[in-house]
Amino acid sequence: MKKILVIAFLTLTTMSLQAQEELTWHTDLSKATGISIKENKPLFLFFTGSDWCGWCIRLQKAVFKTHEFVKWAKENVILVELDFPRKNEQTEAVKMQNAQLQQQLQVRGYPTVWFVSATKTADAKVNLNALGSSGYVAGGPQVWIDGANQIIKKK
Known about the structure:
Blueprint: H1 2-20, H2 29-39, E1 43-48, H3 54-64, H4 67-76, E2 78-83, H5 92-104, E3 112-120, E4 126-134, H6 141-152
Parallel strand pairs: 1-2
Antiparallel strand pairs: 1-3, 3-4
């Protein structure tokens, strides 16, 4: 009986810790831009093929789903996923938004992460200023985060 209680406790504790590790990935750029301006954090635009791109899946597992990245992301950026799936359904608005950003930033492969700063102009328009980009980087989360920090310093 004690073993069952211990196992149950450990399972619930693990689930609780995983829930705390969740990040908010926005799919609506205009909403994310408003948050970015309000919190004075750059946008983290993750161009991915979530259901077919092996390197995208690998980057997520090796970096984006680690404790180090979760902590860093919460403190430094507003996350936006710009997905180009083959099987999963998307609204036409999301498809159009993602394609437009892909074209503007000249994304040619996946995974690609662009860091951009958002600013409001005097006439209430929003400008996105490209800071730099990255892709899959071997070496684990800290190597990836160090590279990202070099890019967002330009903010």
